Structure to design on (298 residues):
């Protein structure tokens, strides 16, 4: 397998690459991760079952999409495919460091710039409006399918393809969400005064998917990309421990959030808590029910 991956790296880069060192590194909860080196050049390789190749293809496309905005650093995808029953994704290797306050402020500024980016083919470039939410393909959030069918209305997109879809999966998994259907009926009211412009979002932006390189450059990775309300990214940064305060200062200096964000934050993070229940079970169903009740009390 490793020789096949090395051969693909050589073919894509045009530089001979023979593996002289391979070591296991953190790959997250879903994949296995390896550092692959020839003594001069190192790559980060993700592995999963061959059936998961579509997940890696979508991740590569998401990284390429974010990289094309020229707003924030991401690890560039090198190649991907299957070998000996495994799916693989080869990424640029980045040396990560601790990150200064200035670097985290720059992280916020860069993310705000990505959220402001307008695709070259968008009607907005011709003075029109662009209200399509979704993406060119479905991808995954963790290993859960994430449906990105193009939808004109943000509320409809969030009801059907985010909260509604996760609730269906959670109910099949044996979860109990007595007020789930009531919440779906209530979401249009919760989002009634909010009309976001579609932004390219990372989609899974918790603290484990953002870092600073040794050179002090902010970087984000492991995306679940789509065009949505930019606040979904900001909300998730607050879900598992939060980012440094300088990050939020940098973001809001460039692109302040709209009023009502604190309420929407709960709704947007409910998606991830439901997904964590679907992935890991445990007490996430109780947390999701508390969030549902909180939203219904508004």
């Amino acid at each position: 397998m490793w020789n096949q991956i090395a051969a693909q790296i050589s073919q894509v880069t045009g530089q001979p690459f023979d593996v002289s060192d391979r070591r296991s590194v953190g790959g997250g909860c879903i994949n296995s991760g390896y550092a692959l080196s020839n003594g001069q050049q190192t790559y980060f390789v993700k592995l999963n079952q061959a059936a998961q190749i579509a997940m890696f293809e979508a991740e590569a496309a998401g990284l390429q999409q974010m990289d094309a905005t020229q707003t924030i650093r991401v690890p560039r995808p090198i190649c991907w495919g299957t070998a000996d029953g495994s799916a693989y994704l080869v990424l640029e290797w980045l040396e990560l460091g601790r990150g200064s306050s200035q670097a985290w402020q720059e992280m916020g500024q860069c993310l705000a710039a990505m959220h402001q980016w307008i695709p070259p083919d968008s009607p907005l470039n011709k003075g029109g409006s662009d209200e399509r939410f979704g993406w060119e393909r479905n991808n995954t959030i963790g290993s859960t399918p994430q449906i990105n069918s193009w939808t004109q209305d943000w509320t409809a997109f969030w009801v059907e393809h985010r909260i509604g879809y996760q609730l269906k999966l959670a109910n099949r998994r044996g979860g109990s969400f007595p007020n789930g259907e009531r919440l779906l009926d209530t979401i249009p009211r919760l989002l009634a005064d909010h009309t976001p412009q579609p932004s390219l979002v990372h989609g899974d932006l918790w603290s484990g998917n953002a870092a600073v390189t040794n050179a002090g450059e902010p970087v984000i990775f492991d995306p679940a990309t789509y065009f949505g309300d930019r606040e979904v990214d900001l909300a998730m940064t607050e879900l598992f421990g939060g980012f440094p305060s300088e990050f939020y200062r940098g973001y809001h200096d460039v692109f302040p959030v709209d009023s009502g964000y604190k309420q929407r934050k709960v709704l947007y993070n409910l998606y991830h808590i439901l997904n964590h229940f679907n992935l890991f079970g445990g007490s996430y169903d109780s947390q999701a029910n508390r969030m549902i009740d909180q939203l219904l009390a508004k």
Observations:
- The longest strand covers residues 42-49.
